[in-house]
Amino acid sequence: MDKLSSLKAFVKVVELGSFSEAGRQLRLSRSAVSKYIADLENDLGVQLLNRTTRQASPTENGQAYFERALSILADLDAADQMVAHQQSTPRGLLRVNAPMSFGTIKLGPALADFMALYPELQIQLVLTDEHVDPVQEGLDVTLRIAELESSSLIARRIMPIARVVCASSDYLAAHGTPKHPSELRRHKLLTYGFLLTGNQWKLSGPDGDHWVQPDWTLCANNAEVLRDAAVKHRGVALLPAFLAEQQLKSGALRSILPDYKAPMIALYAIYPPTRHLTMKVRLFIDFLVEHFGEA
Q1: Four-point Cα dihedral 148, 150, 154, 155, nearest 10
Q2: CA gyration radius for the chain?
Q3: Regarding predicted confidence, which is higher, 73 or 288?
Q4: Do the domains at 89-159+267-292 and 163-263 have one common CATH topology?
Q5: Taking phi first (over 0 means left), then psi (-120 to 50 degrees means alpha), and beta for anything else, what does residue 198 get?
Q6: Fold of 163-263
Q7: What is the pLDDT confidence band of residue 255, given thresholds at 50, 70 and 90?
Q8: An example of a Gene Ontology BP annotation on this entry (predicted)?
Q9: Do 201 and 211 touch, CB atoms closer than 8 A?
Q10: What pTM does this model have?
Q11: 288 — phi, psi (to 5°)?
């Protein structure tokens, strides 16, 4: 019996809850994955998985075995990476997911610099504003700009990201410039619809916290769309500062409500929990922390 392949197949099935999905990520047929686990169960003399037509879940023995198998595979991977590190040349495929706007504006130039440092790495970058499952999609690192929900995944904070309330001069000339968050309720608002706070805006100032429920005219899950609508005088937007930087400098947008700030959000690197990070993932995350300026 190929014990190592059986362990890898078993761990992947438990992580994904599916023989078919495990086979897809391991590039094996469903029957091959099933045989690996059957061999493992026969060798151990215990049932490791409860199987249905739709999913697989670990038995009590299977869960305990999974936790030890995960540790063993992490140790083996660390040993492999130690040898690779001694050769100082990380190799292989690094799969990265990032938000669309951040990926095109900030990550692209940084990624080119990272590639120059490690030319033997293959990097597959997937840009999307949808929240993907890193384990399900086989991703090494997922970058998110968010207020993070609790998760079994590990998250490392890369840098803080300020937000700015802004609008075009023409819009403000036509509708007035709000001096207090309460005045936003009579304005056309352009809002990002996938925050933990829902569509509500929280702005804090000298007189405390204010929650604004936008009477929005545009709600989108991509902030570039909101920025472009604001530039074309469609309303007031709450945007990540890096996204509106050029428009604020050029005068296409004006920052308003200077005494009130939205809570800081942050860029996080998210990865599955293992005892040891692979060298390529650790190098990439360390590079991002150094490049974007927050340890």
Answers
A1: 20
A2: 24
A3: 288
A4: yes
A5: left
A6: D-Maltodextrin-Binding Protein; domain 2 (3.40.190)
A7: very high
A8: DNA-templated transcription
A9: yes
A10: 0.64
A11: -65, -40
Per-residue pLDDT averaged across 17-22, rounded? 90
- How is residue 105 written in tokens? 């504006």
Let me know if domain 3-85 sits in CATH 3.20.20.70: no
pLDDT tens by residue, 195-205: 544 568 899 99
**144 bridge partner residues:** 268
| Other C-beta atoms lying within 10 Å of the C-beta of residue 231 | 19
* Res. 273: pLDDT tops 90: no
Q: Alpha helix locations (H) across 47-86?
A: 60-86
Say what percent of the chain tops pLDDT 90. Answer: 42
Task: Parse the chain into domains and list their residue ranges.
Answer: 3-85, 89-159+267-292, 163-263
> For residues 23 and 29, is the Cβ–Cβ distance under 8 A?
yes
Token representation of residue 72: 């063993």
| Phi and psi, residue 84, nearest 5° | -65, -40
Structure tokens at 128: 């999307």
Encoding tokens for residue 178?
């709000």
Residues written for the chain: 295
Structure confidence at residue 227 (pLDDT): 95
Q: Mention every residue, 6+ apart, whose C-beta is less than 8 A from residue 269.
A: 141, 142, 143, 155, 156, 158, 284, 285, 288
Q: Are 253 and 244 in contact (CB under 8 A)?
A: yes
Question: In 3-state terms, what secondary structure has residue 192?
Answer: strand
DSSP symbol at 118: -
The torsion angles phi and psi of 176, rounded to 5 degrees, stand at: 90, 155
pLDDT at 51 over 90: no
| 85: its two tokens | 């590190």
